[in-house]
Write a structure and sequence with these properties.
The chain is globular. About 60% of the residues lie in helices and about 5% in strands. The chain has two domains: about 70 residues, 3-Layer(aba) Sandwich (Glutaredoxin), CATH 3.40.30; about 160 residues, Glutathione S-transferase Yfyf (Class Pi), Chain A, domain 2 (Up-down Bundle). Helix 1 links the parallel strand 1 and strand 2. Helix 4 packs parallel to helix 9. It is an alpha+beta fold. It has a four-stranded mixed sheet with strand order 2-1-3-4, with helices on one face.
């Protein structure tokens, strides 16, 4: 048990969900150490020597960044694969993963927090999903500072948020066009492209198979979600979660 892989993560974060899903897809038993944004800094620094999550300790190596974590898992446990075996299909899957990482991940995070932080009780519930009542109360005392830092670090102003919204809708349109006859973005089986796209959209789509219970969306996000809910990409995210999210392989599943 002592040499189990360990993942430091935020429960709600979509980049962290990419890493969790990859671990579960590989059926790799692991420990999860859930952290709170802000107070996570000294903890993750102490254990990993850096400040980012997700961070995976795999053997003697600590891997940071969801894309690098998936690559390391693919090398560590090739089956079941997330990378297509054919070179052309593999290159396309990796390109779509990178596209989602760059064009979807940061922009959805900006739109999500721009609106969520305007409703403190929902913001606090979202940031503390899965925590004890005591942890929520303690975190609530620091919430004004956390909110100010998030607003600064994520560029949460109206013009940039509106630009991010447009880019997300463009990604949804492209993903809808990329879905093939078998229901996947590349070829006829689930790949890293599907995992990345679905995981990074999960905070907005909110598929039932998401591994943690999420608070309701704030009204502005709920209205946006309702407008997009019938798009092909939205329905595809639900389908990917239903068909492939599976069960957690985390020991204790925190």
């Amino acid at each position: 048990m002592s040499d189990l892989p360990t993942l430091w993560h935020f429960r709600v974060s979509h980049y962290n969900e990419k890493a969790r899903w990859a671990l579960d897809w590989k059926a790799l038993p692991h420990r999860r150490r859930a952290l709170l944004p802000g107070p996570h800094l000294p903890v993750v620094w102490w254990h990993t020597g850096q400040k980012q999550v997700p961070a995976l300790r795999l053997g003697s190596e600590t891997i940071v960044d969801s894309t690098r974590i998936i690559a390391a898992l693919e090398a560590h446990r090739p089956d079941p694969p997330l990378y297509p075996s054919a070179a052309t299909a593999r290159a396309r899957a990796l390109a779509l993963e990178d596209y989602c990482d760059e064009e979807l991940g940061p922009h959805l995070r900006r739109v999500f927090f721009h609106h969520t932080l305007e409703v403190p009780e929902i913001a606090l519930a979202t940031l503390t999903v899965g925590e004890s009542d005591l942890a929520r109360r303690s975190y609530g005392l620091a919430f004004p500072l956390v909110r100010a830092i998030l607003r600064r670090d994520l560029g949460l102003d109206a013009p940039r948020t509106e630009e991010s919204r447009r880019r997300i809708e463009a990604v949804l349109a492209r993903l809808g066009d990329e879905i093939g006859p078998a229901g996947y973005l590349v070829g006829d089986r689930f790949s890293v492209a599907d995992l990345a796209g679905a995981a990074l959209l999960a905070p907005l789509v909110r598929p039932p198979a998401f591994p943690y219970a999420l608070p309701p969306l704030v009204p502005a996000l709920a209205a946006w979600r309702a407008r997009l809910a019938e798009s092909r990409a939205f329905r595809w995210v639900d389908d990917m979660y239903r068909r492939h999210r599976g069960t957690s392989c985390a020991v204790g599943h925190p």
